[in-house]
Amino acid sequence: MKNLLLTVLFLLALAACSPAKPDISGDWKLVSYGDTANLTPALLGADTSIQFENGKLNGNVGCNSFGGNYELSNDQITFRGIVSTLMYCEETSMQEQEVLGVFSDNLALQIQLNEGALTITSVDGASVVNLVRK
Questions:
Q1: Which segments within the chain are labelled E, that is strand?
Q2: Is residue 9 included in any domain, yes or no?
Q3: Residue 93 structural domain
Q4: SS3 2
Q5: What is the mean pLDDT of each run of 10 residues along the chain (134 residues)?
Q6: What is the largest CA-CA distance in the chain?
Q7: Domain holding 70: CATH number?
C-alpha cells in the first residue's frame, strides 16, 4: 500500500512538471511576417486578424477570410483543414500568401507565447508570423 501511494505521488509530481499548453485562445492581430532575417510589417489599414478558440481558428488576412482547425502540444501547433476564400486583391496578395503559407496543413509548427505576443515559426525556421492580442 505504501509503494502504491508513493507511486501515485510520484506520478502526480511528474505530471505537474510537464509543460502546460499555452493559452492562445482569443483574438490576435498580425504585427509582422516573413523571413526571420528580414521581417515585413503588417500592412496598415488591412484587417489582418486571427481568432483561436477550442481547436478552431478563423481570421482575415487582408482581403480573404480563412478558417480551419488547430491542435496544441506544448510549444507546437498543428493546423488542419485550412481553407480560405479566393478573392484577388493586389495590395494584400503578398501578405496573404506569406501568412497562409506558414499555416500549412499537418505540420507541427513552433509557437512562442510571451506577454501578449505570439510567434508562429515554420518547420524549417525560415518563416515567421508575429501576432499580438487584440
A1: 26-35, 40-41, 48-53, 56-61, 65-73, 76-84, 108-114, 117-121, 127-133
A2: no
A3: 21-133
A4: helix
A5: 52 53 92 92 91 96 94 93 92 89 83 94 89 96
A6: 70
A7: 2.40.128.270
